[in-house]
Amino acid sequence: MTKTIYNTTILPGENKVIKLPIGSLPTGTPIKIPVYVFNGKEDGPTVLLQGGLHGDEINGVETCKRMLVNEYFTNVKKGCVIVIPLLNVYGFIHFSRDLPDGKDVNRSFPGSKSGSLAGRIAYYHTHEILPHVDFGIDFHTGGAMRSNYPQIRYTPNCSESNKLAKVFNAPIQFESNLIKKSFRATAEKEGIPILVFEGGESMRFDELSINEGIRGALRVLAKYGMIDAHSLATKNKNKTIYLTDRKWLRARKGGIFTSNINNGEGIEKDQVLGYITDAYGNRSTVVKAPFDGYVFAINNHPLVNQGDALFHIGKKK
Protein backbone atom coordinates (compact mmCIF):
# COMPACT_ATOMS: atom_id res chain seq x y z
CA MET A 1 0.00 0.00 0.00
CA THR A 2 1.33 3.43 -0.92
CA LYS A 3 2.10 5.63 2.09
CA THR A 4 2.65 9.36 2.41
CA ILE A 5 4.58 10.56 5.46
CA TYR A 6 5.52 14.23 5.81
CA ASN A 7 4.83 14.91 2.12
CA THR A 8 7.00 11.96 1.08
CA THR A 9 5.43 9.13 -0.91
CA ILE A 10 6.63 5.57 -0.36
CA LEU A 11 5.41 3.17 -3.03
CA PRO A 12 4.99 -0.60 -2.49
CA GLY A 13 8.44 -2.21 -2.57
CA GLU A 14 10.22 1.07 -1.75
CA ASN A 15 12.43 1.90 1.25
CA LYS A 16 12.97 5.53 2.21
CA VAL A 17 14.37 7.67 5.02
CA ILE A 18 12.24 10.66 6.00
CA LYS A 19 13.68 13.37 8.21
CA LEU A 20 11.15 15.17 10.39
CA PRO A 21 12.34 18.72 11.26
CA ILE A 22 11.59 19.43 14.90
CA GLY A 23 13.73 22.46 15.73
CA SER A 24 17.29 23.65 16.02
CA LEU A 25 20.12 24.06 18.52
CA PRO A 26 21.00 27.54 19.86
CA THR A 27 23.76 27.55 17.22
CA GLY A 28 21.16 27.29 14.49
CA THR A 29 22.03 23.68 13.67
CA PRO A 30 18.79 22.01 12.54
CA ILE A 31 17.55 18.96 14.46
CA LYS A 32 15.71 16.28 12.50
CA ILE A 33 14.31 12.88 13.43
CA PRO A 34 15.18 10.19 10.84
CA VAL A 35 12.26 7.86 10.14
CA TYR A 36 13.10 4.67 8.22
CA VAL A 37 10.23 3.28 6.16
CA PHE A 38 10.34 -0.20 4.60
CA ASN A 39 7.23 -0.72 2.50
CA GLY A 40 6.49 -4.26 1.31
CA LYS A 41 5.09 -5.09 -2.10
CA GLU A 42 1.99 -6.76 -0.64
CA ASP A 43 -0.59 -5.30 1.72
CA GLY A 44 -0.23 -6.09 5.40
CA PRO A 45 0.07 -4.47 8.82
CA THR A 46 2.24 -1.43 9.51
CA VAL A 47 4.50 -1.93 12.52
CA LEU A 48 6.38 0.80 14.39
CA LEU A 49 9.69 -0.03 16.08
CA GLN A 50 10.83 2.89 18.18
CA GLY A 51 13.69 3.77 20.54
CA GLY A 52 15.02 6.82 22.33
CA LEU A 53 11.74 8.31 23.53
CA HIS A 54 13.88 9.11 26.56
CA GLY A 55 17.26 10.40 25.42
CA ASP A 56 19.47 8.51 27.87
CA GLU A 57 17.81 5.12 27.31
CA ILE A 58 20.57 3.91 25.05
CA ASN A 59 19.63 0.23 24.80
CA GLY A 60 16.46 0.97 22.85
CA VAL A 61 18.42 3.14 20.43
CA GLU A 62 21.03 0.42 19.97
CA THR A 63 18.37 -2.26 19.47
CA CYS A 64 16.77 -0.35 16.59
CA LYS A 65 20.16 0.64 15.17
CA ARG A 66 21.40 -2.95 15.02
CA MET A 67 18.25 -4.09 13.26
CA LEU A 68 18.88 -1.42 10.62
CA VAL A 69 22.59 -2.22 10.29
CA ASN A 70 21.84 -5.93 9.90
CA GLU A 71 19.30 -5.10 7.19
CA TYR A 72 16.49 -7.20 8.63
CA PHE A 73 13.87 -5.07 6.88
CA THR A 74 15.32 -4.34 3.45
CA ASN A 75 13.06 -6.95 1.83
CA VAL A 76 9.78 -6.72 3.73
CA LYS A 77 7.41 -9.19 2.06
CA LYS A 78 4.15 -7.57 3.05
CA GLY A 79 3.00 -4.67 5.13
CA CYS A 80 5.29 -1.88 6.26
CA VAL A 81 7.96 -1.50 8.95
CA ILE A 82 8.62 1.99 10.33
CA VAL A 83 11.76 2.34 12.44
CA ILE A 84 12.57 5.40 14.56
CA PRO A 85 15.83 4.58 16.38
CA LEU A 86 16.01 7.92 18.19
CA LEU A 87 12.96 10.07 18.87
CA ASN A 88 14.32 12.39 21.57
CA VAL A 89 17.39 13.76 19.79
CA TYR A 90 17.78 16.65 22.24
CA GLY A 91 17.87 14.37 25.29
CA PHE A 92 20.31 12.06 23.52
CA ILE A 93 22.72 14.92 22.83
CA HIS A 94 22.62 16.00 26.48
CA PHE A 95 22.72 12.46 27.98
CA SER A 96 19.32 13.22 29.48
CA ARG A 97 15.97 11.48 29.79
CA ASP A 98 14.18 14.74 29.11
CA LEU A 99 14.50 17.83 26.95
CA PRO A 100 16.56 20.93 27.85
CA ASP A 101 13.48 22.56 29.41
CA GLY A 102 13.01 19.55 31.69
CA LYS A 103 9.89 18.23 29.98
CA ASP A 104 9.34 14.53 29.30
CA VAL A 105 8.25 13.76 25.73
CA ASN A 106 6.48 10.65 27.04
CA ARG A 107 4.22 12.83 29.19
CA SER A 108 3.46 15.29 26.40
CA PHE A 109 1.26 13.33 23.97
CA PRO A 110 -0.72 13.93 21.82
CA GLY A 111 1.24 17.17 21.73
CA SER A 112 0.73 20.67 20.43
CA LYS A 113 1.92 22.27 17.20
CA SER A 114 2.65 25.54 19.00
CA GLY A 115 3.45 24.19 22.48
CA SER A 116 6.66 23.28 24.29
CA LEU A 117 9.44 21.48 22.44
CA ALA A 118 8.30 18.17 23.96
CA GLY A 119 4.75 18.92 22.86
CA ARG A 120 5.88 19.71 19.33
CA ILE A 121 7.83 16.45 19.02
CA ALA A 122 4.78 14.56 20.30
CA TYR A 123 2.55 16.46 17.86
CA TYR A 124 4.67 15.51 14.83
CA HIS A 125 4.68 11.89 15.95
CA THR A 126 0.94 11.81 16.60
CA HIS A 127 0.00 13.40 13.28
CA GLU A 128 2.70 12.20 10.87
CA ILE A 129 3.55 8.69 12.09
CA LEU A 130 0.83 7.26 14.30
CA PRO A 131 -2.02 7.39 11.72
CA HIS A 132 -0.12 4.83 9.62
CA VAL A 133 0.57 2.37 12.46
CA ASP A 134 -1.41 -0.80 13.24
CA PHE A 135 0.70 -1.81 16.24
CA GLY A 136 4.13 -1.04 17.64
CA ILE A 137 6.98 -1.86 20.00
CA ASP A 138 8.44 0.97 22.08
CA PHE A 139 11.95 0.12 23.37
CA HIS A 140 12.94 1.56 26.76
CA THR A 141 15.74 1.27 29.32
CA GLY A 142 15.73 1.56 33.11
CA GLY A 143 16.53 5.04 34.43
CA ALA A 144 18.24 6.54 37.47
CA MET A 145 20.85 3.74 37.67
CA ARG A 146 18.12 1.11 37.84
CA SER A 147 18.62 -1.93 35.64
CA ASN A 148 15.58 -3.67 34.19
CA TYR A 149 15.70 -7.35 33.32
CA PRO A 150 14.38 -7.81 29.75
CA GLN A 151 10.60 -7.52 30.03
CA ILE A 152 7.46 -6.71 28.07
CA ARG A 153 4.71 -4.53 29.48
CA TYR A 154 1.30 -4.73 27.84
CA THR A 155 -2.05 -3.06 28.35
CA PRO A 156 -4.63 -4.69 30.67
CA ASN A 157 -7.87 -5.88 29.08
CA CYS A 158 -6.41 -5.53 25.58
CA SER A 159 -6.50 -8.89 23.84
CA GLU A 160 -4.34 -7.70 20.94
CA SER A 161 -1.60 -6.43 23.29
CA ASN A 162 -1.70 -9.74 25.16
CA LYS A 163 -1.41 -11.64 21.89
CA LEU A 164 1.55 -9.54 20.73
CA ALA A 165 3.28 -9.97 24.09
CA LYS A 166 3.05 -13.75 23.82
CA VAL A 167 4.54 -13.68 20.34
CA PHE A 168 7.37 -11.36 21.45
CA ASN A 169 8.31 -13.97 24.09
CA ALA A 170 10.35 -11.82 26.49
CA PRO A 171 11.80 -13.51 29.60
CA ILE A 172 9.35 -11.58 31.81
CA GLN A 173 5.95 -10.10 30.98
CA PHE A 174 3.21 -8.34 32.91
CA GLU A 175 0.25 -6.02 32.53
CA SER A 176 0.99 -2.32 32.95
CA ASN A 177 -1.61 0.42 33.29
CA LEU A 178 -1.64 3.30 30.83
CA ILE A 179 -0.06 6.58 31.96
CA LYS A 180 -1.88 9.79 31.12
CA LYS A 181 -0.38 11.74 28.18
CA SER A 182 2.09 8.95 27.39
CA PHE A 183 2.79 7.73 23.86
CA ARG A 184 1.23 4.34 24.62
CA ALA A 185 -1.94 5.87 26.08
CA THR A 186 -2.38 8.10 23.03
CA ALA A 187 -1.86 5.19 20.65
CA GLU A 188 -4.21 2.89 22.56
CA LYS A 189 -6.88 5.61 22.50
CA GLU A 190 -6.70 5.39 18.70
CA GLY A 191 -6.98 1.59 18.83
CA ILE A 192 -3.27 1.00 18.22
CA PRO A 193 -1.77 -1.57 20.64
CA ILE A 194 1.77 -0.80 21.79
CA LEU A 195 4.15 -3.13 23.59
CA VAL A 196 6.69 -1.50 25.89
CA PHE A 197 9.99 -3.37 26.08
CA GLU A 198 12.22 -2.51 29.04
CA GLY A 199 15.79 -3.71 29.37
CA GLY A 200 19.07 -2.64 30.93
CA GLU A 201 20.17 0.63 32.51
CA SER A 202 20.34 4.15 31.06
CA MET A 203 23.65 5.19 29.45
CA ARG A 204 25.01 1.64 29.72
CA PHE A 205 24.83 -1.08 27.07
CA ASP A 206 23.23 -4.35 28.13
CA GLU A 207 23.80 -7.07 25.54
CA LEU A 208 21.17 -9.42 26.95
CA SER A 209 18.50 -6.72 26.71
CA ILE A 210 19.55 -5.60 23.24
CA ASN A 211 19.54 -9.15 21.89
CA GLU A 212 16.21 -10.01 23.54
CA GLY A 213 14.70 -6.87 22.03
CA ILE A 214 15.90 -7.80 18.55
CA ARG A 215 14.74 -11.40 18.83
CA GLY A 216 11.31 -10.37 20.08
CA ALA A 217 10.78 -7.86 17.29
CA LEU A 218 11.80 -10.41 14.65
CA ARG A 219 9.38 -12.96 16.13
CA VAL A 220 6.50 -10.50 15.86
CA LEU A 221 7.26 -9.54 12.26
CA ALA A 222 7.70 -13.18 11.22
CA LYS A 223 4.41 -14.12 12.91
CA TYR A 224 2.58 -11.68 10.64
CA GLY A 225 4.40 -12.89 7.53
CA MET A 226 6.22 -9.59 7.05
CA ILE A 227 9.68 -11.17 7.06
CA ASP A 228 11.00 -14.72 6.90
CA ALA A 229 11.57 -16.44 10.24
CA HIS A 230 15.11 -15.61 11.40
CA SER A 231 17.33 -18.05 13.28
CA LEU A 232 17.87 -15.43 15.99
CA ALA A 233 14.14 -15.48 16.71
CA THR A 234 13.51 -19.21 16.49
CA LYS A 235 16.38 -20.58 18.59
CA ASN A 236 16.63 -20.41 22.39
CA LYS A 237 13.03 -19.30 22.92
CA ASN A 238 12.18 -18.14 26.42
CA LYS A 239 9.88 -19.80 28.89
CA THR A 240 8.14 -16.56 29.68
CA ILE A 241 7.40 -15.74 33.32
CA TYR A 242 4.17 -13.81 33.84
CA LEU A 243 4.17 -11.59 36.92
CA THR A 244 1.49 -10.05 39.08
CA ASP A 245 1.36 -8.16 42.42
CA ARG A 246 4.42 -6.11 41.55
CA LYS A 247 5.99 -3.83 44.14
CA TRP A 248 9.17 -1.91 44.86
CA LEU A 249 11.16 -2.82 47.95
CA ARG A 250 12.42 0.47 49.40
CA ALA A 251 15.25 1.42 51.72
CA ARG A 252 14.19 1.65 55.36
CA LYS A 253 17.37 3.61 56.08
CA GLY A 254 19.94 5.50 54.04
CA GLY A 255 23.46 4.17 53.52
CA ILE A 256 25.59 2.02 51.24
CA PHE A 257 23.49 -0.53 49.39
CA THR A 258 24.77 -3.94 48.28
CA SER A 259 22.63 -6.36 46.28
CA ASN A 260 22.88 -10.05 47.09
CA ILE A 261 21.02 -11.37 44.03
CA ASN A 262 21.14 -11.24 40.24
CA ASN A 263 18.49 -9.54 38.17
CA GLY A 264 15.84 -11.91 36.82
CA GLU A 265 16.36 -14.53 39.55
CA GLY A 266 13.63 -16.25 41.50
CA ILE A 267 13.30 -15.36 45.18
CA GLU A 268 11.77 -16.99 48.25
CA LYS A 269 9.94 -15.37 51.12
CA ASP A 270 12.37 -14.04 53.78
CA GLN A 271 15.36 -14.55 51.49
CA VAL A 272 18.07 -11.92 52.04
CA LEU A 273 18.25 -9.84 48.86
CA GLY A 274 20.71 -7.19 50.00
CA TYR A 275 22.17 -5.05 52.76
CA ILE A 276 22.40 -1.38 53.69
CA THR A 277 25.32 -0.27 55.90
CA ASP A 278 26.84 3.06 56.87
CA ALA A 279 30.22 4.15 55.51
CA TYR A 280 32.04 2.53 58.44
CA GLY A 281 30.26 -0.80 58.72
CA ASN A 282 28.83 0.03 62.14
CA ARG A 283 25.27 -0.90 61.31
CA SER A 284 23.52 -3.10 58.80
CA THR A 285 19.94 -3.22 57.55
CA VAL A 286 18.87 -6.43 55.86
CA VAL A 287 16.55 -6.33 52.85
CA LYS A 288 14.35 -9.45 52.72
CA ALA A 289 11.86 -10.76 50.19
CA PRO A 290 8.25 -10.40 51.42
CA PHE A 291 7.01 -13.25 49.21
CA ASP A 292 8.05 -15.89 46.67
CA GLY A 293 8.54 -14.44 43.21
CA TYR A 294 11.10 -12.85 40.90
CA VAL A 295 13.33 -9.78 40.83
CA PHE A 296 13.05 -7.87 37.55
CA ALA A 297 14.75 -4.56 38.38
CA ILE A 298 17.64 -3.62 40.68
CA ASN A 299 18.96 -0.24 41.81
CA ASN A 300 22.68 -0.21 40.97
CA HIS A 301 23.43 3.01 42.84
CA PRO A 302 25.66 2.19 45.84
CA LEU A 303 24.38 5.15 47.88
CA VAL A 304 20.71 5.22 48.84
CA ASN A 305 18.46 7.42 50.92
CA GLN A 306 15.56 6.35 53.06
CA GLY A 307 12.65 5.48 50.76
CA ASP A 308 14.75 4.84 47.65
CA ALA A 309 13.63 1.98 45.41
CA LEU A 310 15.97 -1.04 45.68
CA PHE A 311 14.33 -4.07 44.05
CA HIS A 312 11.29 -4.36 41.79
CA ILE A 313 9.70 -7.73 42.46
CA GLY A 314 6.57 -9.62 41.49
CA LYS A 315 4.73 -12.89 42.04
CA LYS A 316 4.54 -15.53 39.35
CA LYS A 317 1.05 -15.54 37.84
Could you please describe the fold and organization of this structure?
The protein is 21% helix and 37% strand. The chain has 317 residues and is of the alpha+beta class. It has two domains: 3-239, Zn peptidases (Aminopeptidase, 3-Layer(aba) Sandwich), CATH 3.40.630.10; 245-316, OB fold (Dihydrolipoamide Acetyltransferase, E2P) (Beta Barrel). A five-stranded mixed barrel has the order 8-9-11-18-16. A four-stranded antiparallel β-sheet has the order 15-14-12-17, with no helix packed on it. The protein is globular. The relative contact order is 0.13. The model has no long low-confidence stretch (mean pLDDT 96).
Could you give me the name of the CATH homologous superfamily of the largest domain? Zn peptidases
N→C terminal distance: 41 Å
- CATH top level of the largest domain is Alpha Beta
User: How many domain regions?
Assistant: 2
Q: SSE string, helix = H, strand = E?
A: EEEEEHEHHEEHEHEHHEEEEEEEE
CATH topology of the largest domain: Aminopeptidase
Largest beta sheet, briefly?
Answer: 5 strands, mixed, barrel
Provide the spatial order of strands within the biggest beta sheet: 8-9-11-18-16
Please tell me the overall pLDDT. Answer: 96
Strand pairing plus helix content: what structural class? Answer: alpha+beta
**CATH architectural arrangement of the largest domain:** 3-Layer(aba) Sandwich
Q: What is the total tally of β strands? A: 18
Shape: globular
The helix count comes to 7
Helix content range:
10-25%
